[in-house]
Design a protein that fits this description.
Helix content is about 0%, strand content about 75%. The chain has no helices and ten strands. A ten-stranded antiparallel sheet has the order 6-5-4-3-2-1-10-9-8-7, with no helix packed on it. A hairpin with a 4-residue loop joins strand 1 and strand 2. It is globular. The two termini are about 25 Å apart. The mean pLDDT is about 95.
Length: about 150
């Protein structure tokens, strides 16, 4: 029997990257979203909007969080499209499509940590990002869903 609960939520994403040259970059976003739980799996639907003064359309994101094994997948659609799976010790690859063309992007996941509490769920991903087969950055993504 399928059980499903759905509600509005707030999604806070903090993304940190350390590039191949040692340069650090951090981005934090906050969005309203929709959280659905179906048979113990969380689905978080939210949108990202371009920064003020930058061209581009909104990007819809679907974040799927599974507990056993601990893994997450992210699907982007809209101005860009991409789908990637984060699972400890595994590498996943796909095309990152933009209006200007597509790039081969892969991630090697080092850590997936999921903490589910009554009022919030926290997800932490630690991974290495590759573009066209070249290492670009060591990354840490933290998501907090309330």
């Amino acid at each position: 029997m399928t059980t499903e609960k759905s509600r509005e939520c707030t999604v806070r994403i903090i993304s940190r990257q350390i590039g191949a040259e040692g340069e650090e970059q951090a981005i934090e976003t906050m969005s309203k979203g929709q959280l659905t739980e179906r048979d113990g799996v969380l689905y978080v639907l939210y949108e990202e909007f371009p920064e003020e003064g930058q061209p581009g359309a909104a990007v819809k994101n679907l974040l799927k969080i599974e507990g056993d094994p601990a893994r997450a997948s992210l699907k982007k659609s809209g101005a860009v499209s991409w789908r990637i799976v984060f699972e400890r010790g595994k590498t996943d690859a796909s095309e990152y499509r933009t209006p200007y063309g597509a790039l081969g992007v892969s991630v090697r996941t080092n850590e997936v940590t999921i903490l589910r509490e009554k009022e919030k769920t926290s997800l932490q991903l630690v991974y290495t990002l590759f573009i066209q087969g070249e290492k670009q950055a060591d990354c840490r993504l933290e998501a907090e869903i309330r």
